[in-house]
Specification:
110 residues; binds heme C; signal
């Protein structure tokens, strides 16, 4: 079911070119925390936000060795802790599980 919804969203995105909601929504956790657009966007006009910006506020999350049986996505055997946040955490679109380009891990990216 979830996959179907996701597919529908992707089709919409393809049809509309860019996601219609880009820039108009923030993730609930950032909304609640009272972030403003320029908490992340430090250039005018706004461009995609770099990992450097994320880690000004966030420590790289602590290593979790057992998250529902899946390995640590913040420190993987392939990339260590060096993957850009935006590979998984999108701010204006549904986040994605980058690892599942190749694996089938059961974790959900906030
Ligand atoms: C928590 C950080 C964060 C906040 C807050 C934020 N953005 Fe973004 N924004 C991003 C990231 C990361 C991207 C890259 C695409 C993605 O991950 O969704 C992006 C992409 C964009 C883009 C596309 C830029 C491009 O050239 O690709 C626009 C426009 C934009 N944001 C507008 C806004 C507006 C307007 C707000 C306030 C309502 C806002 N953003 C708040 C992180 C943020
Ligand atoms: C201005 C400070 C600030 C910036 C910049 C920022 N965040 Fe956040 N973020 C917060 C705060 C505050 C919270 C809510 C409290 C918490 O969970 O740490 C939060 C929450 C989150 C959460 C959810 C945490 C949870 O427990 O579910 C994720 C994921 C996240 N941020 C990722 C990012 C990413 C990726 C970027 C860069 C695109 C980013 N943040 C940029 C301040 C920031
Ligand atoms: C390969 C995908 C992936 C990448 C890349 C990634 N994250 Fe996460 N992140 C997750 C997932 C999945 C969770 C959900 C909690 C979990 O599974 O540990 C998460 C949770 C979080 C949380 C909530 C706190 C926690 O430990 O649960 C924060 C904050 C966060 N990520 C920040 C970041 C920042 C900052 C970056 C970039 C430096 C980043 N993440 C890169 C997948 C990723
Ligand atoms: C481009 C494809 C690809 C991506 C993306 C990918 N992996 Fe893998 N991964 C593999 C392949 C192929 C193997 C098996 C070969 C090997 O063991 O080196 C593997 C093996 C592993 C193993 C077991 C190997 C060991 O040394 O314990 C873990 C754990 C793992 N991946 C975690 C991750 C995580 C976490 C991510 C996301 C951050 C990820 N992978 C992203 C292709 C990928």
């Amino acid at each position: 079911m979830f996959k179907l919804i996701l597919k529908a969203a992707l089709v919409m995105t393809a049809v509309l070119g860019t996601p219609a909601f880009a820039g108009n929504t923030m993730k609930p956790h950032h909304q609640t925390a009272g972030l403003k657009c320029n908490s992340c966007h430090v250039t005018t006009p706004f461009q995609a936000v770099s990992t450097e910006q994320c880690v000004k506020c966030h420590q790289l999350p602590q290593k979790k060795t057992d998250y529902r049986g899946a390995p640590d996505k913040h420190d993987s055997p392939h990339y260590g802790p060096t993957l850009d946040c935006d590979n998984c955490h999108h701010e204006h679109e549904v986040s994605e599980n980058y690892c599942n380009n190749c694996h089938e891990f059961d974790f959900k990216v906030p």
